[in-house]
Input
Amino acid sequence: MSDFPRMTPPVKRSVTIDGHSTSVSLEDAFWNALGGIAKAQGVARANLIGQIDHARPPEVGLATAIRLFVLANLQR
Output
């Protein structure tokens, strides 16, 4: 199982999107990967989360949208 990242349960994290405080529950692997993507793009993680939030359809939860964004980014 050495190919797997450290498996952690989702952790609830507070973020502010457009001045509105919300929370998102993500596993450490996704949170850390999102931070790496944000750094590579030269934006704050909160700003990237805001972009993902604005781009997602209303029926897709924010945590799911973030996971799919990270997956798509890693597949490129």
Helices lie at 28-41, 45-55, 62-75.
